[in-house]
Amino acid sequence: MQEIQSYSMTLLLFILSIPALLTIPALFAYKLVEKAGVAGWKMLIPFYNLVILVQITERSYWWYLWLIVPFINVFTFMLLLIELIKGFSKTKMLDQVLVALFPFIYLPWLSIQNKEWIKLSDRPKIVKSAAREWTDAIVFAVIAASIIRMFLVEAYTIPTSSMEKSLLVGDFLFVSKMAYGSKSPQTPIAFPFVHHTLPFTKFTKSYVEWIELPYHRFPGFGHIKNNDVVVFNYPSGDTVVLERQNEDYYQIVRTMELEQKNRLGDLYKPGMGRAEIWKRYHVTDRPVDKRENYIKRCIGIPGDTLEIIDRQVYVNRKATENPKNMQYMNDVFTNGTGLNPRALDRLDITEISQISNSHYILPLSEDKKEKLEQFANVKSVLVRNREKGQAYFPIFPHDTKNFRWNEDNFGPLVIPKKGTSVEINLKNISLYKKIIGKYENNNLEVTDTAILINGIPAESYTFKMDYYWMMGDNRHNSADSRYWGFVPEDHIVGKASFVWLSLDPHKGLFDGKIRWSKLFRFIH
User: Fold this and answer.
1) What residues have CB less than 8 Å from 303, skipping those under 6 apart?
2) Longest dimension (CA), the chain
3) CB-CB contact of 297 with 472 (8 Å)
4) Which domains can be identified in the chain, with CATH numbers?
């Protein structure tokens, strides 16, 4: 019963939140409604000012309903503002676009113009050319689609194999942004329907940063749960080497620092590797909403204690239920004869590395491992496992002195939760450096003897946001939280919900390219 009540309250807040925000730009129309014969103070009353706009523009009562339907009300409000300025003889496309996108500026500007209000019945009929009709239709289609994409649902495709075989390369899926609550865009001025780079350009940004909005998440229909498949903005994507966008900038720098240290010896100074990267390549930064979109399974939620022991994930000391199609890399040894490609194809094994006639490296789920072991020429199938205590440099927190962790044996680690505090010291600060300095915008300084946060010595830290731990189902072929750490709540995009199309990139159109058995499936 409590869950139902909580859900109902969340839904109510969700329905009310956007109309409440729409009342803010409506305040700037108070001088205009005075010219229309309505007392301007009425526009200062939240919600009621939307009713006034409907009445002045002589819209039907249905518009009241559209103003409370989440996200449709944003489009409805834009249309109301357009109808309002038509009463002041503003009918050009440019005026309509400006009032829809920048009401804070356009409405006050129009109020000081020497324009008289004309009732709907007294306005001359506007005859639009065919070009204008098409332009209007395209503009509002773009606006409507942008609102849907921004707040409701967005289409994605799977480009890498990190979630195989749960999600396949070539899967086309819908992601619900309302599942956890839609985010307000950090960079609202951007080229529509593209992410961070303009079409037909190599590096040109598709957005401008003149206006940056603070992080805000509208109420959603639920919260992230363990094992949800989640789309999020790549945390380490705040800085990008444009010539190497598929690689982690920070790992590129760490590798270069190591190379410079080995090459220069005593002449090496910290930061020389970073300087070399900036010298060789074009490096840029990106706001949160323009970072690459990643899709992984949420293994740990705020407050969870996570540990990996010999590949098995434990959350709060209990072994988690492994995804049905989870894969690991395996060394497959034969009697010297090769593996039959058709047999591998029937097992849907597509990533094949052949070391020799008798040695293969294959990603296998447990059931496929068992089937492969039954092949007459297969002598053994050994799953790869890096031993406990065998530190692996690329693994978070990239501090092999204090944390000898690897991809198969990791933790224990507590996932940060908003409002909770943690002790920080010189031994564990590597776990929280990025949270304190990057994600939560503090000035962090670590010396040989002390930790300073905003210039003040600190021995503890209280988190301002919730954080999550994400991992791919293709465990040995997934760049995930084991490599770059926590995912902040402001990076969460939505919940992967439904696959509507699946195309095999290795096959032609008439050679089984469409995976018919993988179409129209829900994601678990």
Assistant:
1) 414, 415, 417, 420
2) 92
3) yes
4) 2-127 (no CATH), 312-383 (3.30.70.80)
